[in-house]
Write a structure and sequence with these properties.
alpha/beta, Urease, subunit C, domain 1, 2 domains, eight-stranded parallel β-sheet, 24% strand, binds nickel (II) ion
């Protein structure tokens, strides 16, 4: 892998000091960010030049990023990538009916290859909206891992586990095998978790078993928590307390947990999430579309809970556009609290990058542009009418930018999209495959 030198770019570092560097350079070496600053350059000759860096002389590919903004790639903290296959297939239904009458029957027809092509489509879509890492929970995870490997993305992957299903034990075994096979693979881009779906599909005894296995594997857990009022009400009826409390008693939070949704929480629930360092994935569009509610994000942030942003699956969104998701997150909490200061642009951008990285368990490795971190960097074209004048780049990224403005995406030091062209995925082939497969899954010929 050759080095990359990004030159003359506005760098939104997302470091602890919230530093924005004008006209800076970023040097990428061996998949990592080697240096960030001004004038990391030597005599340029064409597109390959010798870069004066400490240590032996090395050659670097140069990307002139004049007029662009560099920021850490977005982390989509919760999705079901292959559900792009069901985009637009079932809309405007309550969650339970949506799952039971439309999504679950269609999912029963899924093949491993369907999941492969559906995931590849979502990787294509996510890269185009600046996502470099996504946390996934689905089935046929070997195929998801293969799609991650090919696309060049970073994935935190978990096989969804339904404890009440007849094949629950087999699924858990399969999930364990998946973790052993793929954790750390694809050049370190894949990490794995166990994925008990939710308290309404996984009784506490099953959760306890999953926690034990995760502990032995040394992996975290990805779960849906308190997505709807119905979930909370039924949990209280069945087990006597809220999902958070029941899951705590089952030992779930003893390990690293990524909790999707967390819409309906009591003060006590939030205290538990804060106390155990649970990472939350906030999915504003999905929660609006399924009318689940609006998560108490400002309150969670105030209590020190790490909250990232997710798109959820394409069947409940219906796209995987993190720029859109970030903006919605910044807007929705203002209106529900009638307070325009409650979630500023800087916080929304942090949620989509640093906090997301922390929530999915990769906080030390990604989420900011700093020497030593892995090189997951996106370049945003600011030479567009809606990005002028440049009063405040962070404000523009959250309130004005379109995902179309993202021109170049680098993941683990590899350029996967360059000036709007995806280099790792054959888009036409993917569109065709998904179109054909989606018709079959919907029961059409
Ligand atoms: Ni979900």
């Amino acid at each position: 892998m050759s080095d990359i030198l990004i030159k003359n770019v506005t760098i939104v570092t997302m470091n602890e000091r919230d530093e924005v560097i004008q006209g800076g350079d970023i040097l990428i070496s061996d998949g990592k960010i080697a240096a960030v600053g001004a004038n990391l350059r030597a005599a340029a000759q064409g597109s390959v030049e010798t870069v004066a860096t400490p240590g032996p002389e090395r050659h670097a590919r140069v990307i002139d990023a004049t007029g662009k903004i560099a920021l850490p790639g977005f982390v989509n903290a919760h999705t079901h990538a292959a559900m792009t296959l069901f985009r637009g297939y079932a809309d405007d239904l309550p969650l339970a009916e949506w799952l039971e009458t439309k999504i679950w029957p269609a999912e029963r027809r899924l093949t491993a290859d369907d999941v492969y092509w559906g995931t590849l489509l979502s990787c294509d879509e996510m890269i185009r909206s600046g996502v470099t890492t996504f946390a996934d929970q689905y089935f046929f995870m070997d195929k998801v891992a293969e799609a991650v490997e090919i696309s060049g993305m970073r994935g935190v992957l978990s096989r969804g586990l339904i404890g009440v299903a007849p094949g629950a034990e087999g699924s858990l075994k399969e999930a364990i095998t998946f973790c052993r096979r793929w954790n750390g693979k694809a050049g370190g881009r894949i990490s794995t978790m166990l994925g008990p779906h939710a308290i309404y599909t996984c009784p506490p005894v099953f959760i306890e078993k999953v926690v034990k296995e995760a502990e032995m594997l040394g992996v975290g857990l990805h779960i849906h928590i308190s997505e709807t009022q119905k979930e909370v009400r039924e949990c209280v009826e069945r087990y006597g307390s809220s999902p958070v409390k029941v899951l705590k008693d089952a030992g779930l939070f003893e390990l690293k947990v990524l909790a999707a949704h967390c819409v309906h929480l009591s003060r006590e629930d939030m205290e538990i999430l804060a106390q155990f360092g649970v990472g939350v994935a906030h999915n504003p569009t999905s929660n609006l579309k399924l009318a689940s509610g609006i998560a108490p994000v400002p309150e969670m942030l105030k209590m020190g809970i790490t909250v990232g942003i997710g798109t959820d699956g394409a069947a409940s969104n219906n796209n995987l556009d993190m720029v859109e998701e970030m903006r919605l997150c910044a807007l929705i909490h203002k209106v529900t609290s009638l307070d325009p200061t409650v979630l500023p642009a800087r916080t929304a951008l942090r949620m989509a990058t640093t906090f997301g990285a922390r929530a999915v368990g990769l906080g030390k490795m990604i989420g900011s542009i700093e020497p030593g971190k892995l090189a997951d960097i996106i370049l945003v074209d600011a030479h567009r009418p809606h990005m002028v004048p440049a009063h405040d780049v962070v404000s523009h990224l959250v309130y004005a930018a379109h995902s179309d403005d993202i021109s170049t995406v680098i993941i683990n030091g590899q350029v996967v999209m360059e000036e709007g062209r995806i280099l790792t995925i054959d888009e036409e082939r993917v569109f065709e495959e998904v179109q054909t497969r989606a018709r079959r899954l919907a029961g059409k010929r």
